[in-house]
Specification:
Distance between the termini: 47 Å
Number of helices: 27
Shape: elongated
Strand content: 5-15%
Largest sheet: 3 strands, antiparallel
Number of strands: 9
Structural class: mainly alpha
Helix content: 55-70%
Radius of gyration: 31 Å
């Protein structure tokens, strides 16, 4: 009977505190996006401090997305060099500068510049926060902490929608300035992630950080697993962008592309950005500003649900439920605005049907919040190896920003040119396609460790994307996998990059011709070392010291008469003798060509040739006490 680990009271308290402090950066950054809803009517009003046209107003809204394109790029360049903590703290600087510029602005150009700065801070915060959350959170709460990304973002919308209509333009800027300041004060007390500290070689600080986060002194086992993952990431780290597009990460990249496009093609940002414009067309007793506040309240309440459900229900069910509900809400709005455009509906104030599109928008907002708005950020921190996680987040944020800009701009163009109903039909159709793709592509990562998730992502099946079904824990046997017999494991694990391209041997191969490599056990076996199917095992290897087989053979064939091959391999005396005798009148050259080609003669220091790991290596098996077997009667 398996023992269930005891969960201590308040065991995850510090993890949630760190997650709340980190995601408060999103209150500061997303407030920049919510600011335009109450600010644009003020700027277009009769007493505007900076009078603007409708076109200038649309650029004020859209420039945030342009600036956000550069935030992820900066994140990819800085987050592995300076750390998650410093980069996240730095994201507050452009936001602070932007609010100061808006508060003192006297011309439209200053507003444009401020919005670009806001976008840069927005993109930077949105890129690094999921990385920080994914690396500080335990497997049991990683989904919940990841969902906080969207919860805090919706809180920012609520604050702007609730405060903005009731204060002045400049007062709103000064109030909004408080958000990044409060974030810096709260986050200043939080630790750097253990993964980054281990990558920097600061084991003591990593242990201290992990000890504080877990509120437990018994961290040796988890710290060891983290160290192995970091070491593997260092070995695999070459070009992060190239690694991102490598075959082993193709499925993860497809998932990120699907989630980033699917989120935005529902039209969520266009609907939120133009909510007052949409609601102003409805014949309801409440004003458009009051309807927007109700929308923000419902949105905030909705995104809190996945915080409690994502680690219980799982990622896939929430995404599928969210997609289905979003389709219902968007289709209802599309039908309503189609009938309204055809003149089939009454425009009298207080008409009962006026509530239909508002309720439909609320259904869409609730459904979107349950899964599509929250779960992608939990998945984003899980599906990529550590050494390319920053690049993956950057790609996710860049794609999202580009799509947001396109959707927001095209929504106004299409609505003015063809009608609002056309935009809603497009959003509904895109959401249907997203739901189908989610069903066939997105795997379930609930409760899985980073190591196990990466194993799942690196199993790419040619031609077909298949979800990996994990056996229940109660049906799996947990054993010491180093005692497994032939046929019960595969070593080295071919799904991992464990061959050093410089030596063409396993990473860490020593002069004793031994190296530890990651292996994968057969289905149904759980290794006590890692609590999953992977484990490390000492394997034989061939220590190399820079001598290439192809170079030695070419030198022997073409310059062997001058002893170049022997000089290259470290036999200067024989090389000089061949040089003086023209390779023993070419006879010695011929012998050396044969000896080198058959790999009988190797480097003088006892190392092996560098030959492709799966290339034409000759292994000589000699008869000894281990290999010799007496003839049997039944042979």
């Amino acid at each position: 009977m398996m023992m269930t680990p005891t969960i201590r009271s308040g065991q995850y308290r510090n993890e949630y505190l760190a997650a709340l402090a980190a995601t408060s950066s999103l209150v500061a950054s997303v407030a920049c996006a919510g600011w335009s809803s109450p600010a644009i009517p003020m700027l277009r009003g009769a007493d505007s401090p900076i009078p603007i046209t409708a076109d200038e107003g649309s650029w004020i809204v859209s420039l945030l997305s342009i600036g956000a394109l550069f935030g992820p790029i900066a994140c990819g360049l800085l987050v592995d060099r300076y750390g998650r903590w410093k980069v996240l703290m730095g994201s507050a600087l452009p936001i602070v500068l932007g609010w100061v510029m808006i508060a003192f602005a006297q011309a439209i150009g200053v507003l444009y510049a401020a919005r670009l700065l806001h976008g840069f801070g927005y993109g930077l915060a949105y890129s690094v926060t999921p990385i920080y959350l994914g690396e500080i959170s335990s497997d049991a709460v990683r989904g919940s902490t990841g969902v906080l990304v969207t919860v805090m973002a919706k809180l920012a919308f609520l604050l702007q929608y609730s405060i903005g209509p009731y204060v002045g333009y400049r007062a709103l800027a000064w109030i909004s300035l408080a958000f990044p300041v409060l974030f810096c004060v709260a986050f200043a007390w939080m630790p750097e992630t253990p993964y980054y500290l281990l990558a920097c070689g600061n084991d003591e600080a990593a242990a201290s950080s992990l000890r504080w986060l877990r509120r437990d002194e018994a961290i040796i086992s988890e710290l060891g697993r983290m160290r192995k993952l970091v070491e593997h990431s260092k070995h695999a780290k070459t070009n992060p962008l190239g690694q991102l597009f490598a075959a082993t990460n193709r499925k993860s990249l497809l998932i990120i592309l699907l989630l980033s496009l699917g989120m935005q093609l529902t039209g969520i940002n266009a609907i939120l950005g133009y909510s007052q414009t949409i609601f102003s067309r409805l014949a309801l007793p409440l004003s458009a500003a009051e309807l927007s506040i109700v929308l923000a309240l419902v949105q905030l309440g909705s995104v809190m649900l996945p915080t409690f459900l994502v680690d219980r229900t799982g990622r896939r069910p929430l995404l599928l439920i969210s997609t289905a509900g979003s389709v219902v809400g968007l289709t209802t709005c599309a039908v309503y605005f189609t009938l309204d455009n055809a003149g089939e509906l009454s425009s009298e104030p207080g008409a009962a049907h006026g509530w239909i599109p508002f309720v439909a928008v609320l259904v869409f907002i609730v459904s979107f919040a349950v899964g599509l708005a929250t779960v992608p950020f939990a998945i984003l921190g899980e599906v990529f190896p550590k050494h390319i996680k920053a690049m993956a987040n950057a790609v996710f944020a860049v794609i999202t920003s580009a799509v947001v800009f396109s959707v927001v701009k095209l929504f106004q163009v299409i609505s003015d040119g063809a009608g609002t109903y056309v935009s809603f039909w497009i959003f509904a159709g895109c959401t249907v396609v997203t739901g189908v793709l989610i069903y066939y592509i997105i795997p379930e990562t609930k409760g899985q460790s980073f190591e196990r998730i990466q194993e799942m992502m690196q199993r790419v099946i040619a031609g077909v994307l298949v979800l990996v079904s994990l056996l229940p824990t109660s049906l799996e046997a947990e054993i010491d996998c180093n005692s497994l017999r032939m046929g019960q494991f595969l070593c080295p694990d071919p799904s991992l990059r464990q061959i050093d391209p410089r030596t063409q041997q396993l990473y860490g191969c020593t002069k004793e011709n031994k190296a530890r490599a990651w292996c994968i056990a057969a289905d149904g076996i759980v290794c006590s070392e890692t609590k999953n199917a992977s484990f490390t095992r000492e394997l034989p290897c061939k220590w190399t010291n820079g001598y290439h087989f192809d170079t030695a053979l070419l030198l022997s064939v073409f310059l062997g008469m001058f002893g170049a091959d022997r000089f290259y391999l470290g036999y200067p005396a024989l090389g000089l003798l061949k040089f003086c005798t023209l390779g023993f009148m070419f006879l010695g050259q011929l012998v050396d060509v044969i000896l080198i080609a058959t790999q009988v003669v190797g480097p003088a220091d006892g190392s092996a040739y560098i030959i492709p790991y799966y290339g034409p290596v000759i292994t000589v098996v000699r008869s000894d006490n281990w290999t010799y077997r007496l003839p049997q009667d039944n042979w």
